[in-house]
């Protein structure tokens, strides 16, 4: 006799609760692990160990005939490992940087519900219990809020896997004395948001931020005669569409933000790329000390001479010192036509003597060199099996 659907759901609910209990227990063990590594000074991540763990779990499931796909197992446990790594990382960083307060003010672009707002919450919850949100209408205003002390931190998008670098943010970094103190990646899931259950063919006007419009360009091209209205942020677009309450308009944004404004999803999955991720940086007035046990990045601003091969000579310094460069971005120098400055991101801790030696040597090949920030990376690349 087949079980009643209600009974099946009750069983599923109980299993889900048991899983949550086990996940909580595993999460707590991460603190025991980091306390042990704190004594031994071992690196937080052991990718080889993570790979062995994933392989053992796949083999165990096969031997026990659990009928679970290897990819399903690895995806779940990669996320669990990521949580463990970030938990341990936060533990070390909070001990090194005791100036962090219980309540922090974070400035972000747009109103509540914007991607920057959601990223700010994501960052703050790892360190604090209370977050005081400061909505800004421009990237420049975020810098101003942090510089004045009104905000402890500012969260800014730096690059996106679909639309590339956010040049305005890079340009603002040229002229600031603020420091980069963190980074995080936030998945971007664009959808069409409306006031009711309108048909997509009725929509003739779309509201959103230029970056969102760019990231959904292929979907927009498939629509007939749609007018684009650019907004300060996706959250501004959602608020506007909600207040206008017309059947022919829609906002492009995220589902969670749409709920804050009473909007419903008309169509999801509209971004050009399925894996659409924005990388955010966190700025503050003062730099942070980063534990040598943590995966660390440093962002540099550099100019070189206009002689042939000068940039290549500078980059070879990193190869010589076995430092991995993860980003090279060029931007024009205002007032100097055809001259450019370079943003270099490297996987290195400026407190490491080898890194300091490399930076000293780099000065020989640059006209100008500035460290914009040394920060822990909260982007945990999954160990691959």
Automatic annotation (TrEMBL):
Xref: CDD domains:
ACT_CM-PDT (cd04905), PBP2_Ct-PDT_like (cd13631)
Q: Where is this site: Essential for prephenate dehydratase activity?
A: 278
**Do you know which InterPro entries this protein is assigned to?**
ACT-like_dom_sf, ACT_dom, Chor_mutase/pphenate_deHydtase, Chorismate_II_sf, CM_dom_sf, CM_II_prokaryot, CM_P_1, Preph_deHydtase
The protein's Enzyme Commission number: 4.2.1.51, 5.4.99.5
Which GO MF terms are attached to this record?
A: chorismate mutase activity; prephenate dehydratase activity
- What does the UniProt keyword field contain? Amino-acid biosynthesis, Aromatic amino acid biosynthesis, Coiled coil, Cytoplasm, Isomerase, Lyase, Multifunctional enzyme, Phenylalanine biosynthesis
In the record, biological process GO terms are: chorismate metabolic process; L-phenylalanine biosynthetic process
Question: SMART domains, from UniProt?
Answer: CM_2
Keyword Coiled coil found: yes
Show where the ACT domain sits.
299-376
Where does it live in the cell?
Cytoplasm
- What residues does the Chorismate mutase domain cover? 1-92
The GO cellular component terms are: cytoplasm
Q: What is this protein called?
A: Bifunctional chorismate mutase/prephenate dehydratase
Species in which this protein is naturally found:
Caviibacterium pharyngocola
Q: Which gene encodes it?
A: pheA
């Amino acid at each position: 006799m087949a079980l009643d659907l209600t009974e099946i759901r009750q069983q599923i609910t109980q299993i889900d609760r048991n899983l949550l209990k086990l996940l909580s227990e595993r999460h707590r063990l991460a603190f025991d692990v980091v306390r042990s590594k704190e004594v031994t000074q071992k690196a937080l991540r052991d990718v080889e160990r993570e790979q062995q763990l994933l392989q053992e779990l796949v083999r165990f499931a096969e031997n026990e005939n659990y009928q679970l796909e290897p990819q399903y197992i690895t995806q779940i446990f990669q996320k669990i490992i990521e949580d463990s790594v970030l938990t341990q990382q936060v533990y070390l960083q909070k001990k090194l940087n005791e100036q962090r307060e219980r309540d922090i003010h974070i400035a972000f672009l747009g109103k509540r519900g914007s991607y920057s707002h959601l990223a700010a919450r994501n960052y703050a919850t790892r360190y604090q219990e209370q977050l005081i949100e400061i909505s800004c209408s421009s990237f420049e205003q975020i810098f101003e809020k942090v510089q004045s002390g009104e905000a402890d931190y500012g969260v800014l998008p730096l690059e996106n896997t679909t639309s590339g670098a956010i040049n305005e943010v890079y340009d603002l970094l040229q002229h600031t004395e603020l420091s980069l103190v963190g980074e995080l990646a936030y998945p971007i899931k664009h959808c069409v948001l409306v006031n009711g259950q309108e048909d997509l063919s009725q929509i003739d006007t779309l509201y959103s931020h230029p970056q969102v419009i760019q990231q959904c360009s292929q979907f927009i091209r498939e629509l007939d005669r749609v007018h684009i209205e650019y907004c300060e942020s996706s959250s501004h677009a959602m608020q506007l569409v909600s207040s206008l309450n017309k059947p022919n308009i829609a906002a492009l944004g995220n589902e969670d933000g749409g709920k804050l404004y009473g909007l419903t999803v008309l169509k999801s999955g509209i971004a050009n790329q399925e894996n659409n991720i924005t990388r955010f940086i966190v700025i503050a007035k003062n730099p942070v000390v980063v534990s040598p046990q943590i995966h660390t990045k440093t962002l540099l601003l550099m100019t070189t001479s206009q002689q042939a091969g000068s940039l290549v000579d500078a980059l070879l310094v990193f190869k010589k010192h076995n430092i991995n460069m993860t980003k090279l971005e060029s931007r024009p120098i205002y007032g100097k036509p055809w001259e450019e400055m370079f943003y270099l991101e490297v996987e290195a801790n400026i407190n490491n003597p080898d890194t300091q030696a490399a930076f000293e040597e780099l000065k020989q090949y640059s006209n100008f060199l500035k460290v914009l920030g040394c920060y822990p990376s909260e982007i945990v690349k999954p160990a691959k099996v």
